[in-house]
Structure to design on (203 residues):
């Protein structure tokens, strides 16, 4: 569970840094072309939205683990925890759908991105089938011993590879965010050199 909290804290810091970067990019139009500025700004916006989606997934997953744990110690609130898990699952489904659709649309040839998406889909599918669904069934029947068993034998162990896959997605977004502005700058200067050569030949 502490790993989930660390991920959430990391994402919060990264989002703040990217927002600062976006502000810097938005204000640097005096120094580079409008085309470069717009391209880099768009890149930051995409990365920010991707990290927002991953953050929502991480937060909802942590919420599910807390709800399962709390249901053992506060069985009178079982119905509330069941609703929380169902809501969090819907949030994860929605945000993951948006994330994958966007990545596959914007970078259809990104093999690493596809591999990471496939891995997260795999481990999350197992987590839902072997941890979340059985825990919900036990919670609906108020079987506290069974909830505890599922928490120890499935929720905790299966959450480790889920966090690992999520961290890999976050790392990919960070690397792409760092790389894109550099590519934009190289492209800008390359185009400038080409334009200068064209002018030279014209003269």
């Amino acid at each position: 569970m502490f790993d989930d909290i660390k991920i959430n804290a990391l994402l919060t810091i990264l989002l703040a840094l990217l927002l600062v970067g976006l502000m810097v990019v938005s204000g640097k139009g005096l120094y580079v072309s409008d085309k470069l500025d717009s391209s880099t700004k768009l890149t930051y916006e995409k990365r920010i939205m991707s990290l927002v989606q991953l953050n929502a997934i991480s937060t909802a997953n942590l919420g599910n683990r807390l709800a399962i744990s709390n249901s053992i110690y506060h069985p009178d609130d079982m119905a509330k925890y069941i609703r929380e898990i169902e809501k969090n699952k819907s949030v994860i489904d929605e945000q993951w759908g948006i994330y994958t659709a966007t990545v596959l649309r914007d970078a259809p040839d990104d093999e690493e991105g596809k591999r990471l998406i496939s891995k997260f889909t795999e481990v999350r599918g197992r987590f839902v089938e072997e941890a979340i669904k059985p825990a919900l069934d036990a919670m609906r029947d108020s079987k506290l011993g069974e909830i505890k068993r599922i928490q120890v034998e499935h929720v905790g162990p299966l959450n480790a590879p889920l966090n690992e896959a999520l961290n890999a997605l976050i790392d990919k977004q960070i690397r792409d965010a760092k790389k894109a502005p550099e590519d934009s700058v190289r492209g800008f200067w390359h185009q400038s050199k080409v334009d200068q050569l064209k002018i030279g030949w014209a003269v």
Remarks:
- The mean pLDDT is 80.
- DSSP finds five helices and no strands in the chain.
- Residues 144-202 form the longest helix (59 residues).
- The helical segments are 2-26, 34-73, 78-106, 111-140, 144-202.
